[in-house]
Amino acid sequence: MKKKGDIKRNTFSKNYRGQVWIETVIYLLIAFVMMGLVLSYVKPKIEDLRDKAIIEQSLDVINEIDNTISTIGSTGNKRLIEIGVKKGVFNIDSENDMITFELETKYQYSEFGKEVYIGKVKAITQGQNQYSKVILTRDFSEEYNLIYDSSDTNKALPKASTPYRVFIENKGVGVDQDKLIINFNIE
Q: Which residues contact 37 (CB under 8 A, 6 or more apart)?
């Protein structure tokens, strides 16, 4: 025979199980909302730090190119540099004898529109809507005549999964100039 207390106990246990599931769902929803809020704050900061690291690495690459050119030695010497481009574009500007790196980012590397020199490299941040453009430039025009593939052509190195193998070669002093000719080749 069933007792009156048994019926209440069964009803209570069914309600209790339902309440546990409702609480679990509510706690999960609260946890997801909290994680979403944290990610909405942290993700832009992580992207800024990543872009800052890319700019700093690119600055190091430009300085390595500068160091290689200044220590290349006598005519005919050739050196290899590997340039990894994860984001942005490296440019070998033979017409103006410059090496540049450009990156569109939300990170503001320097004050907008003002040129900042980091050693021999000029950095400028140009404003564009929500993104800004960071440009690093090393001008070799006073000391060297830069060429790409034995001619005055420009070469852009966009982002790639593998590093570019760039050969830098001393071609000697030009006949019509008193500047050393530096040839860039990409393999």
A: none
Strands, E assignment, the chain: 78-83, 89-93, 98-105, 116-118, 121-128, 131-139, 144-148, 155-158, 164-173, 180-186
Q: Per the structure block, which two tokens stand in for 138?
A: 């090393």
- CA 117 to chain CA centroid, nearest Å: 19
Using the structure block, give the residue that is written with the tokens 């400028």. Answer: 124
Q: pLDDT for 51-110, tens place per residue?
A: 999 999 999 999 999 999 989 888 889 999 999 999 999 999 999 999 999 999 888 888
For residue 100, which of 53, 52, 47, 141 has the smallest C-alpha distance? 141
pLDDT tens-place string over residues 8-31 = 555 555 566 678 888 889 999 999
Q: Which two tokens stand for residue 185?
A: 């080749």
Closest CA to 170 of 147, 186, 140: 147
Please state whether beta strands 98-105 and 131-139 pair in parallel, antiparallel, or not at all (unpaired).
antiparallel
According to DSSP, the residues that pair with 185 across neighbouring strands are: 167
Task: Please give the model's pTM, rounded to 2 decimal places.
Answer: 0.77
Rounded-to-integer distance, Cα 161 and Cα 24, Å: 44
